[in-house]
Structures are given as C-alpha cells and as structure tokens.
Amino acid sequence: MENLLAIINNDPKVAVGLAGIVPGVLLYFTPMKIILRVVEERSSEKLSLTPYLLAYMNCMFCMVYAYWSLNLLAVIANAIYCGIIIHYIMILMFLSPKNVILDKRIGELVVLTVAVLTSTFVPFSMPENISPLFTGSLATALSMVLYTLSLVSVIETKDVEFMSFYSSTLMFLNGAFWFAFAVLRQDHFMIITNGFGCAVGAIQMYLMYPNNKDKTKNQNEERRIDSSDSIV
C-alpha cells in the first residue's frame, strides 16, 4: 500500500488513471438491471447481442492498443471491462432460444472472433512503430462510432431506462478522467477518444436531465399514492 501511495505521489498519471477505472467499471455495470430481468424471464430473445459484442470488441481494441503503447493502467482497465462484458454475452447466449442462436448469435460471434483475432495478431506482423498506429486507429474509430450511436439513440428515444442520467454522468466522468490521463501522457489517440466521449456524456446529461427529473417526480407521486393507500 505504501509503495502504491509513493508511486501515486511521484506520478499524477497513476492517480488519474486509477480514478478513471472507477466510473468505467460502474458504467459497464449499468446494464445489470436489464441482464437480471433477462435472467428472471429466462429468455434473451428480445434483446440484441450486438451492442454487447461491439462494446467487448471496443474494449479489446483499446486493450491491444494500450499494450502496444506500453500503457499498463489502460490494459488493466480494459481487461476489467472485457471481463464484465463477456459475462453479459455468456448469459445472453445461454438464455437464447436455439433458433435465435442458429440465426443470429453464431454469426455475430464469428464476426467478433475474426475482428478480435485480427486486431490482436496482425500488429505482430507489422513494424513496431506501425503497430501502435494501427491499433490506435482501430480503437479510436470504433470508440467514436459507439459514442455517436449512443448519442443518436438518446436524441431519438430519450429512453431513461437504457441510457439514464446516471449512465451519462458515468460516461462523462470516465471520459474526463481518461482525457486528463491522456493529456498527461501525451497520448493523442486517447485524447481524441476520451475527449469525444466526455463531450458526448455531457451532451447526454443535458438531454437526459429533464427526463430523469420527470421520472423521479412520477416515482415520488406513485410512492405518495401507495403510502396513502396503505394508510387507508
């Protein structure tokens, strides 16, 4: 513990990176409510596996880039994120009807496997100065696509359940901490990715706040009604 504190005192990047892991982990735990509902219903037929596969692929790309850029904290963070997401994928696969597995799930997993293997092993065949550029470009491109899809979904649906104000806040904090880490490290790929993610999180917070406030107000009214009913 003392050694860790000494490292943090000597290198602010470590403190910022460790702080960034916390909102990231919490962010990837936010789908747990949906996963638990799927477990209760014993079927994932109505739930698409694609967002989880894309999220896993994104974390894998980021972890591979972190490896090539000698960024241990980012490797650890994305390994944790991958561990969380792979559990979601396994649960959804296990609870998928056989016809859905044959029609959709297997094809999605094949695409994921090819993409992950390509991003992992192809860089080894490249010159060492090109590998970080290749993996960083992949990670940045996919991250920005996912952030954009999230923002478009919020603008179109403003669904509090699937992208709540809480989730948007975690996205903002995650992006902010890793953006600061990237600035201190002077990592341009991470600066672009997390700067964009921080901005998207802030926009979603602004868009979701009225909906979140209305939902809280409705829940409070329902509690008052239930309380008055119980008294009667």
Sum this structure up briefly:
The protein is mainly alpha-helical and 232 residues long. It is built from 9 helices and no strands.
Explain what you see.
It is built from nine helices and no strands. With 232 residues, the protein is an all-alpha fold. α4 (50-68) packs parallel to α6. The longest helix has 44 residues, at 188-231. It is globular, with a radius of gyration of 20 Å.
Distinctive features:
232 residues, disordered C terminus, 0% strand, globular, 84% helix, mainly alpha
Count of beta strands: 0
Q: Rg from C-alpha positions?
A: 20 Å
Output the number of helix runs: 9
Largest sheet: none
Mean pLDDT: 80
pLDDT < 50 stretches: 1-7, 216-232
Into which percentage range does the β-strand content fall? under 5%
| Helix-strand topology string | HHHHHHHHH
Class per helix and strand makeup: mainly alpha
